[in-house]
Amino acid sequence: MKKDVVCLILSYPPLNSENNGTRRDWIRDVLRITQKAREALYRQKKVNVPELSSEMDKLLSRQIHDIKVHVPSDILVNMCNGLSPGYQAPPEAMLDRCIDDFMIRQILQYIQIPEIQRIVISEVNDKNFLVRLKNLSPIRRMFCRVIRVDVRFCPTVKDIEDRIIEQLGFSNSDRGEAEQLLRSQNFLILLDDFHPWIENLHHLGNGWWNSNNTQKIVLASFQFYPGVPMDLEIRRNHHLLSWELFFRNVGEVLHSSTIQKLAVHVLRQCSGHLRATVLMARALKGVKNVRIWQHALRVIGFQPTLLHVQDRIMINALIFILGHLGSAAIECVKYCAFYLEMEGTDKVDLLERWMKEDLIGTLGKGEQIVQHLVDAHLLESFANGESVQMQNEIRKELVKFYKVEMNPTLLVELDGRGLTEAPENEAWEEANEMSLMNNKFSKLPDNPNCPKLRVLFLQGNHRLRVISSSFFQCMPILQILHLSETRIKFLPPSFFKLVQLRKFFLRSCELFMELPTEIGELCHLEVLDLEGTEIINLPAAVGKLTNLTRLKLSFCAQTSHCRKDNHSNTIIPQNVISNLLQLKQLSIDVNPEDERWNAALKYIVKEVCCLKQLLFLKLHLPEVLLLNDLWDVASSLNLSCMRFRFIVGRHQKRIISRLSHESAIRFEEQETCLKYLNGEGIPTGIKVVLQHATALFLDRHLTVTSLSEFGIENMKNLKFCVLSECDEIQTILDADNDRNGVFPSLAYLELHYMKNLRSIWKGQSSQMPSLSNLKVLALHTCPKLDTIFTFSLLIELNSLEELVVEDCPEINSIVTQEVLAEGVGPPQEWYLPKLKKLSLHYLPKLASISGGLAIAPELEWLSFYDCPNLKILHLEEVSTCKLKVITGEADWWNELKWYESELFQPPNLDDIFVPIERYTDLRTQLVEINDQLQAQKQKTEPSHQSDVLVPSIEFEAGTSSKQKQVAA
Hey, which residues does 122 pair with through a beta bridge? Predict the structure, then answer.
């Protein structure tokens, strides 16, 4: 009973919007304990009842603590004891509809939780309630089959199931076919007017459940029958909670039938919001004037389009209350919203502060205001009335309200709505900020009058090609402008009159190619961001923008068309960069084939070295020698205090990048990055940069045979490392000569197309930990790799969370035989103790994961593809305790056998197996499976590096039903 009451109250705002993920986890834990108790009751299983009871009490007490902030203890106790509300509800049809709305809201919230399969609704007073529920659009979207059956004349479970089968159009002789149909679909079965004396009601539909589908049974009764074995019980009378809160706080005035009707309408407009309900009731306490009640109804029902429902209700309630306070009280409320301590304060201290701020004239007046605000529920008193505090929810909404009042200019927020037409001119006149991004505008007003506009966001309007010449004419104080990801080709003349402009963003505009020289007139500009917008060259006038702190540029290669148009052959004129002495961020992207960059680079590097305040630098340096110029004696740069992105070496044009888009993004997200292309030998400049780099991408190095050749001591800060097409590398790490630990910071290691790679690790364990922070290891297309984990490496990888091995034809096990040999290394219960995701694809010789070695007790995701020799799995190497999903070919899965030992029995994992189609791209399928998991997950455990850690969910994908064979 208590858990059902708690679940009911948690369905009300604002509780239903607070920590939804945590609340759902809590509900799962409660259902788990309930299920244990039910098994003990019906299946005679022995359980520790006191332990279960104690665990349940702890879970309930956590939520009851939050609930008591909104619901008085005595009401909560009465509900838990099964008592009806203490205040008589009026015989109003409007209240009935209101209560039914609250019940439906609770059903829609909890029916989405997979663990809740059976719901009982009692004390229903509307014969058409289930009909209304059946026809709701969310129900229709969730279930492909909704069946409503009247079961008042069904004395047994079998009779109920027969009626359901009849509704499906089957006869009793076709019962098996009907059950098979139900198992294959998302269904909702609504049973009207059931009676609790039916035996074994908990067995109803036992043969129909399929964990891959969404399947629910809802029972409705006109009476209340305690003890019905359901996952969730919803009592209609308990949904009179809002009415009871309102009645208790508004007082005797509700005895008037006229006001009673208005009160029901006010209550419905509050939508069950517990805090707003109390606020409105306190504000109307003792009010007998019908016009004030009508005004309250209008205010609470006002629906500004820019607010969410719950925000709207709270704001409206507070506006109504403030409208009935005196001016001194309003100023005192404002003071409390901004300055009153979160934990509250002594009342006398608050009064003295009010007097110091000239908000009140006497302490007596202040006492009256405090009492009035406590009565209005804007403040709460504690410590025997000696202290006061303001609830967080009220404070947050008041701060929002007063910020708008103190700065009455308007925020126009219409982003992401798919609008095809921009607001009319009137909407621009009073606006302080216009947020119009991610719409479908193709045209903007010609000359909007915006005397107060400071911020304008227009990014993401992909259809916007032309801005009228006078559009910016009447925006005299515009300071921030965002035009990124539009299709504009030119900036209109009026743009260069924005003399107050501080920040200008023009990213990823693929048709924009020329930045006019008039840009130099915007002397207050601090940010000029053209990242991804490939201009032909930078005008010399940019050197006049001496207030710039951030400059991000992208250049296209010079074409014959540009030369014919008499564009400058200089990509960045001399003395432009050196004039921008306030720069803190400088990013320059160039086309590697543009010879103009090579011609200008010598003086550009020299000018960059003059920027004493630089904190971020992104450059492409075709020659390694240019690195030395960045930190010679005359340079002001200090790599140890900077973030940087250096691309060193000459590009070679390629059709297909070996590095995935996801890996490239991960690389760019690192703090300090070095990408070294087509290198030879180990230049000193590279070693120096490596000492400060957190990310390394080594692409097509021509001579190095081991990553260790760059100096292990130079890579102690390295967290992210990608190697691609380094044909001479035979081992990644050579630890023979190192006793101080190898790569102590490395968290991500990814290898692609390493033609001669034979091993990851060479040598013995060092005295200090090595690779102790490695979380992700990904190996792609290493045709000669035959050793992944030696014992020396295996014992170091206590942080590894994800392992990917693809297209490595010589691998027969991820663990070498020397590890499996008896007596090698110290005994260890589990290896790879944090591994959660294991993907093994295109491994024709793979015969065993770890040869029976106990690994990965935390494994959640296991993916196989094209591993024809993997025919037997050991339970020691596939921990099933936390396993959520297995992928692979269906025929491979059906033929797979489990090795049975004395200690472990083979599980049935068919329910979590998801088949992979042979003739569809593997990566695409895995992404789709992951998307499905992400969409349905209820609990997430984030990893720092791995993008996918599979949650515990139910799959829509079909699974094999064949029981795994057991190999003796």
Answer: 235
Contact (Cβ atoms closer than 8 angstroms) between residue 962 and residue 850 = no
Query: DSSP characters for 272-310?
Result: T-HHHHHHHHHHTTT---HHHHHHHHHHHT---TTS-HH
Instruction: Say yes or no to pLDDT of 30 above 60.
Output: yes
* Residue range 261-287: mean pLDDT, rounded: 89
Distance from C-alpha of 199 to C-alpha of 155, rounded to nearest angstrom: 9
- Cβ atoms 636, 611 nearer than 8 A: yes
How far is C-alpha 137 from the geometric centre of its chain's CA atoms?
26
Distance CA 285, CA 246 (A): 10
* Mean pLDDT of the region 278-299: 90
Locate all alpha helices (DSSP H) within 304-391, ordered by sequence: 309-322, 327-339, 347-356, 363-375
How far CA 125 is from CA of 110, 221, 228, 378, 649, in Å, comes to 21, 9, 19, 37, 78
Tell me the average pLDDT across 419-438: 85
Give the pLDDT of residue 458.
94
Average confidence (pLDDT) over 295-312: 70
CA distances to 534, 580, 725 from 657, rounded to whole Å, are 21, 36, 11
pLDDT digits (tens, 9 = 90+) for 57-73: 777 776 777 787 788 88
Task: Name the residue with higher pLDDT: 354 or 670.
Answer: 354
Contact 812, 844 (CB under 8 A): no
pLDDT digits (tens, 9 = 90+) for 894-953: 998 887 655 555 667 888 889 998 877 888 888 777 766 655 554 444 333 333 333 333
Question: What order of strands is seen across the sheet that includes strand 387-389?
Answer: 345-346, 387-389, 380-382
One-letter amino acid of 809: P
pLDDT at 175: 83
Give 435-476 pLDDT, tens digit per residue: 898 888 999 999 999 988 988 999 999 999 999 999 999 999
Contacts 24+ apart (CB under 8 A), 928-935: 929/885, 929/887, 929/957, 932/956, 932/957, 933/884, 933/885
**945 within 8 A of 747, measured Cβ to Cβ:** yes
What is the SS3 assignment for 539-554? CHHHHHCCCCCEEEEE
127: helix, coil or strand? coil
User: Strand 897-899 to strand 965-967: parallel, antiparallel, or no bridges (unpaired)?
Assistant: parallel
Eight-class DSSP state of 172: G
Among positive and negative, which fits the CA dihedral 329, 330, 331, 334?
A: positive
Looking at the DSSP bridge assignments, the partners of residue 346 are 387
- What ranges make up the beta strands (E) of 367-447? 380-382, 387-389, 410-413, 431-435
Q: Give the burial string for 353-384 (b: 16+ CB within 10 Å, else e).
A: bbeeeebbeeeebbeebbebbbebbbbebeee
Sign of CA dihedral 59, 61, 62, 64: positive
235-239, 361-365, 631-635: which has the minimum mean pLDDT? 631-635
Phi-psi label, residue 356: left if phi above 0, alpha if psi -120 to 50, beta otherwise: alpha
- Quote the pLDDT of residue 793: 82
Q: Are 864 and 847 in contact, with CB atoms under 8 Å apart? A: no
* Helices within 691-800 (DSSP H only): 791-794
Residues constituting the chain: 968
Q: Give the integer Cα–Cα distance in Å for 282 and 318.
A: 11
Nearest Cα to Cα of residue 42 among 171, 200, 256: 200
**Which two three-digit tokens encode residue 452?**
């107060």
The residue among 44 and 83 whose pLDDT is bigger is 83
Burial class (CB in 10 A: 0-12, 13-18, 19+), 93: exposed
pTM (2 d.p.): 0.58
Distance CA 703, CA 700 (A): 9
- The pair of structure tokens assigned to 573 is 């004129």
Residue 616 sits at the vertex; the CA angle it makes with 613 and 622, to the nearest 5 degrees, is 115
User: Given the structure tokens 């209609």, which residue do they identify?
Assistant: 236
413 phi, psi to nearest 5 deg: -120, 100
Max avg pLDDT among 48-62, 130-144, 199-213: 130-144
